[in-house]
Amino acid sequence: TVRDGQADERPGGGAGERDGRMFSRQGPIRSIGELGYLLFTAERPWETIRLLEPDPHGTSRVLDLFTAHTNTIRRGLVNINSRQTNALMAALWKMPIEEYPTDEITDPNTVVVPVARQLAETIISHTRDEPIHNLSQLKDVLPHADLENIFLPRGFDVRNNKFLKESVVRNSIGLLGTRHNLFTVFVAARTYTDEYDPNNAGHTANRDDYMLADQRAVAVVWRDPFQTRDSAGNDTFQSWIQYYHWITVVLDEEQ
Q: Minimal CB count within 10 Å: which of 48, 53, 69, 248?
């Protein structure tokens, strides 16, 4: 539903230059990107959450802290740090370019193959040297200038329309991920007699003859994808061992 309301200020404008069109879905939101319509400050009632740059108040963090998908298993997200252009294109192809969402795609303005490829190549060029860890960093891999250069030749003037520009985030956010945050780690340790020489080919070929003990374990480690600062002032991604289990190895009695 499009309702009258105060929207984001136009570039170079102020409180007196507001777009009267605001979107409010009558029902559960379908994409966390819809929070881009949300007003976020009483002091600047015309300013909305920014999903792309510039984002001076860091409001794009809503992409990391909220979700529109709960109590469900989700599979097949495309890793935004992928080096496979076609994989990223698959998540962006036929994506609607719209000022506000509708229940049905009635606007023919969707991302065609050449545009999807340009978007994918832009993302890859900005993540090649330093992968991103959080979806809020989309603003760093989809700069305004790049989006304008991609869409303007296709007839989309996104320069002065925040909502049209952010549809790239709003309509792809459910298909993109950053990295897995749950790891299964296998640990194995062995001890050998003093006679065992790992540099001796004969010993390594028959290492079981020199083995005194063998122990294995499996651990499930959860890694927080959101960067925090520890007590020493270092930026880090905290990790916790969620599960740890020793694996019993039964050796043949003859050994």
A: 248
